[in-house]
Write a structure and sequence with these properties.
Length: about 270
């Protein structure tokens, strides 16, 4: 049921005003930064615990009167380890158990463009995932078969690609977003069908698509079609078109930009 609802949210404009998804759990990989607020808890010793500790602009915070701790681009587990080390170094405890969680997330922005209903920047908090932002943006009928995330921190231009169908069906691995991520939803790559099919036109090309599948998308053959007279007109890199004869089983793979031509039967 949950998967069905998510798929509908991604596809149907009428549901864009539906109740928001519940907040995603904090990912183990979440990197703390300036303006985050942290809760620090030391098991069994309340005087060593601190709530709503603000991470300053330099990425550091004051931990009670024990010193400053660097939190920038560190995970919660790494910060907890740093607090533990500081307590031991200051001879406050031999083996403290420290946990750290986020009390309040800083403002972060991701950007989404391409074939979506709402192309704009999105404010996120914490470990929101790619699916939750796509649910807010909404796919268009012309959206392609994949979604690309361009990660700009720490190395600009790192790219991740996800199959759209897996995202819609909830079978893709959760992908927590980070501040500065760019999400690109390309237009569907298309091929053209001409000749003796019921609905000539341009149709989306999916991975591994065959001529048979493309003709099915075009409504199948007409009664006048010659199933043994099917060809592909393909333009190569140099710009010169050439023809490819398609076997009777129509198993030839289609490429974006191809034109499939179905000939007429001679009576």
């Amino acid at each position: 049921m949950t998967t069905w609802l998510l798929a509908v949210m991604l596809a149907a404009p009428a549901l864009q005003t539906a109740a928001p998804l519940p907040p995603a759990p904090v990912a183990a990989s979440y990197k703390v930064g300036p303006q985050d607020k942290l809760n620090i808890n030391v098991l069994g010793i309340s005087e060593f615990s601190a709530q709503n500790v603000l991470v300053d602009g330099d990425g550091k915070f004051d931990y009670l009167n024990f010193g400053r701790i660097d939190a920038k681009d560190k995970t919660l587990r790494e910060i907890a380890a740093a607090v533990r080390t500081l307590l031991i170094e200051r001879k406050q405890h031999n083996d403290p158990t420290v946990t750290v969680d986020v009390a309040e997330y800083r403002s972060q922005m991701v950007y989404i463009s391409g074939a979506v209903r709402e192309t704009r920047s999105y404010r996120i908090t914490g470990a929101e995932t790619l699916v939750s932002v796509l649910a807010s943006a909404g796919f268009l009928p012309s959206s392609g078969s994949y979604v690309e995330v361009i990660r700009n921190k720490p190395v600009p231009g790192t790219k991740y690609r996800f199959e759209r169908k897996a995202l819609e069906m909830g079978t893709a691995e959760p992908f927590p977003l980070q501040d500065g991520d760019s999400i690109v939803v390309p237009e569907a790559e298309k091929a053209f069908v001409r000749g003796e099919v019921k609905a000539p036109g341009a149709y989306e090309v999916t991975s591994g698509m065959t001529v048979l599948q493309l003709i099915a998308s075009a409504g199948d053959f007409t009664d006048r079609a010659s199933k043994s007279s099917v060809k592909i007109v393909r333009t190569e890199a140099g710009g010169k078109p050439h023809e490819i004869k398609v076997p009777k089983d129509l198993s030839t793979r289609v490429q974006p930009g191809d034109t499939v031509v179905v000939g007429k039967r001679i009576f």
